[in-house]
Amino acid sequence: MERKVIVTADGSSTIHISEWDENYHSKHGAIQEAKHVFIKSGLSLFSNADISILEIGFGTGLNSFITFLEAERFKLTINYVGVEAYPVSFEEVNCLNYVTQLEATEFEAVFNKMHQQKWEIKADITPNFSLTKRQQFFNDIDDVNAFNLIYFDAFGARVQPELWTEEIFQKMYTALKTNGVLVTYSAKGSVRRALQTVGFLVEKLPGPPGKREMLRATKK
Questions:
Q1: Which segments within 100-195 are labelled E, that is strand?
Q2: Is the whole model's pTM more than 0.85, yes or no?
């Protein structure tokens, strides 16, 4: 499928898939969305120093890079696992402007290292941030009681409804530790019901710019 880098409303870039008319991030602001959904509504809940995170849809690496910056800021130790079936090319990565938009030029080498790292291998990006990239379809995930937090950032249900089913969310529930949290930009009723059916306690939260609501789900 044809992919091209575009600029979103907050000045940060994303990738647009023409055939689907779908973006990797919100057209209202890629960085704004990532910070609101995954950091403010997810990572900020965890004050403990050691956190394990599973990202569903590693994509451009924006969520992992922002999480790394937060880990540096708050002295967190993070084990980050990103799952992606169709990796972004390094040529596309070179067209993204996240380092400058986040005013993080001192960590440009870290952003590049995240993308240059080999798949299926756990690597220490820094002493306090490890990254494992898994090239894997979401329905092949079989982790058990392994993560504190899941960033569920798959393409929308409009274009890939098979990624937002009870079967997929059962895998997410199993992958989380007790009191673990899943956050997603979606607020669709069908997504909320699927999460509830597999056992999550689900709450609606205010969404990022351009979106009224989002969902947060907790494993009890």
A1: 122-126, 129-135, 147-152, 176-184
A2: yes
